[in-house]
Design a protein that fits this description.
The structure is a homohexamer. By secondary structure, chain A is mostly helical. Chain A has 2 domains: about 1-55, AhpD-like (Up-down Bundle); about 60-120, AhpD-like (Up-down Bundle), CATH 1.20.1290. Chain A is built from 6 helices and no strands. Chain A has helices at about 15-25, 35-40, 45-55, 65-80, 80-95, 100-120. In chain A, helix 1 runs parallel beside helix 3, helix 4 runs antiparallel to helix 5 (about 80-95) and helix 4 (about 65-80) packs across helix 6 (about 100-120). Chain A is elongated. The mean pLDDT of chain A is about 95. The interface between B and C is medium-sized, with 23 and 23 residues.
């Protein structure tokens, strides 16, 4: 259960409807997921966040599927259940194979392990790593 | 300053020396960074962690440079300063361009933003995302 | 489901009952939420935490409604689902408007974003910021 | 030490210089802090983040000083040292008194405490808290 | 709901079955919990993680019950709901009393509180604490 | 550098001096570490936190040295550098051996690893783990 209402299509203002329509068009599906419906209580944040996601997660020098995997990595470290679900679905939709997913999980797990050990030991940064 | 000693070459046991030698050989450099020197207080953990890193971070269905970028993503979410420094250096050594790094930072930043907003709103997982 | 029992009124010891009664009196409601029922397994911690909450969250130089919003901010960063729910309800009960809530979410989201980018870039603290 | 270069005025492109100039104008000071100099390696992200900060942290239904305090709260939970320093300086510049700061620290500390206890006990959300 | 399939006994490969059998033998129960069933999608990670858990969580200079309590502490800070449930059950199975659990929760809560306050105040490390 | 002043003995109020004196007496040393000097800007929080630490970290059904190790575990997960330093020093002062420290680091590292993997896979809690 959300701490805020999930805006349904029938109650969407023109501003919200325009963003929902663009989400549908860009993704080629009628499905608008709950994140956008929750955010729609604030039409300004809804539009700004959607524009940012389109700009950041689209094609560039990193493959969009890889970007989804990076998103999963951050979301797993932060324990954001919803984000993990939605971006795992996106990574799969963009072609992430079962083997790639297994390798991603191993990297996330290993990073979690060494992050904790390094924090516990307070290892000083080697001068060799500085820019 | 570390909370534990950093083991120098001159004081390394045979077990520790063997791992340091393998690190040097695999990486083609004489440099052994502080993480391994701190971990060397526990030769069993040193060997096990080095074997795990070699296995997990090596070639597979995800490119090793991309694995370093995923490592940076997890470490940034966890705020592990040392890990961020060492894996950013590794990603660069494996070919990460300035443009790829900029895109990585944008994805990490956006994930941090939506993770926090989703947590704050406690958005329920859409049934469409379930396996 | 909790990892510990939720103490019901009928089974509460005199010590626990006294705290539950004070919660009811201070809040002007018969409702005692699950946090207190879980904590009631340890009557000493129950009493100490309730006294601390009364002291910290009450009136002072920061408005109690604002304190609830700060609590939501910390809880969102920590991903504490229960805490987010309970303190969002408290903030609303103390008068937080829909517009204030939207602005709060924007600040939390932006802080999450820049926290991640700053961590990733390991930006050094400007001398101008030191006390 | 940063993992990326800090762009100095002399080497700033026209795009970067325009943002730096706006930062100076809006804040009424010649000082441009390191976050912007690090971010300036990516002029698109620099401009977008500065516009977002101006929009989100400016006046609205929450006082700008309070917004800085909320920012401190999120940054403390995330352990972002730079962010804590810069936003504590901003909160003070906007009028946060010593007493308000003390109260803020108490709320942050208490939230940290109960977040951890609630997580440990996995307290189920009361139906009374749902929207 | 998991983001990956939970491998049931009937569909387990020989490699997976061997690990499940060892889990059952070592623990003296027919019950194989969901963590292992999710991890079983990657038989290499399954075996490596199980071997690591046996080695790390077994008897040594720290009592296995205490190790479970330390695991609960880390998992509570990270907000890993599943991990908190499974390791609280393990700690209880290894003899953790109700009083020990209450004391554990108090330490976790206090650490959460001072971690947040120390982060907020950016307290410099005393030279007396260095190795 | 702290974001607040570190109160020195010469400037301590009577209230603050009384707490510093008690810290010295209980610990049998003249050394008052920076956490208390930073917190001393708020004499009420100083006294309350010191009383809580004495009560929570003292003898009980968990050994005080073990409590320090649990504190290290939470602080490592939260990345609180100061807390890791101070409580590692305390654990050593209370008798933590090098071998116990190595085992602690292994448990913290393993918990960090599985916390991240479990979060990434969103493993559902087994009904067997419920109270």
């Amino acid at each position: 259960m959300a701490t805020t209402r999930l805006i349904q299509d029938a109650e969407a203002s023109a501003e919200v409807k325009a963003v929902f329509d663009d989400i549908r068009k860009v993704r080629g599906t009628d499905f608008v997921n709950n994140f956008w419906r929750a955010l729609a209580n604030d039409p300004v944040a809804l539009k700004a966040t959607w524009e940012e996601i389109k700009q950041v997660m689209g094609p560039g020098t990193i493959d969009p599927m890889i970007k989804e995997m990076i998103y999963i990595a951050v979301s797993s470290a932060n324990g954001c259940s919803y984000c993990i679900h939605s971006h795992t679905a996106s990574a799969r939709a963009k072609g992430m194979s079962g083997e790639q997913y297994s390798e991603l999980l191993r990297v996330i797990g290993l990073a979690g392990k060494t992050n904790h050990m390094v924090n516990a030991m307070q290892v000083p940064v080697d001068p060799e790593f500085t820019v």
